[in-house]
Amino acid sequence: MNIGLAVEFSEFKFLRYLIYSPAILVILSLFRNKFVLRSFNSKINSINFSFLLIIISGLLHLPILGFSGFSQIFFISIASLPFIINNDFKFNVRYVSLIFMMSFLILSLYSGFSIDFSLLSFLKSETSSLETNQHPFVFGIMALFFLYKRDNLFFILNLIFVIISFKRIVFIGLLFAIPIVLLERKNIIILRNKRWFFLVLNLFYVYIIILFTNGVFNELIEQYTGLSTGHLTQGRNNIFSPIVDQYIDMGIFEKLFGMGQGFTYDLSIYESANAPHNDILTILIDHGIFIFILFFYYSYQEVRLFPVIFTNFLFLTDNTMIYTVYIFVLLLLINNLNQSRILISKKLYVKS
Fold it and tell me: Which backbone phi and psi does 311 adopt, to 5 degrees?
């Protein structure tokens, strides 16, 4: 999988299909478990349940899906089904981290390196010349995982790679997620009975995006950054505008149940020649308000919040849901945390 990610831009382009090698794991897991899904309990493995809802919604829309929809359901399924089917995979996360570092270094051999830590470069998202779509995301969540595990060496290593592959939204996500990690590794459960608060924040974000696409914040952005809205957001204001207009024009039934996986992507490509770069809007439009609410509600039922909060930040500006590599790593780490917690609980129960 990581070899495919590393050589995606080299002369060995045919190897990029190794990115989708988790599909083999799906097939093996299905046969191993006799085609029974064993790991999507909404209380124990709530993140698995959330992704299962997305897959089910995609399949229910199957008759109206285009090529993009089929492709995206495939990407999401091969990343998440191994853990929905079976959650007792024994991965050495340190080895997984090292493989990602190696794949990034291989990719870097084909690129010149420059880095600029100025505020202007940060605002323009031009800090590192080695920024890629998926590596910075993986390094970010790996850094959080190792910080939680008190593995200082691999936390620092992944943090170094976060800096080298610097991506603005990853940096912002880390700023918010690191304090959560420090609280949670002291076994402090954050907002134990008020996790609906995070769902409300995502709904409020949709409202902010509607205002944003109508130019409400243009003057404020230019006043405090010296950049135009389009420059600061890398043109996302123009990308989001037709998507928001489409959502406003949708009927009640379509708003409730969605337009089908890939609809937002195809619309965005047609209107702006760019991917939507916003998974919050994509989930809302493709799957409808019901799945949107259930997806974020159950995602935030995870005992450890930091991986979900970090990923939610990525959802704000990217197409993270269809990044097979990142979603696979996300679920790998969360299921690792859940298995460790269950194992500790069993040991304490036996001792008592």
Answer: -65, -35
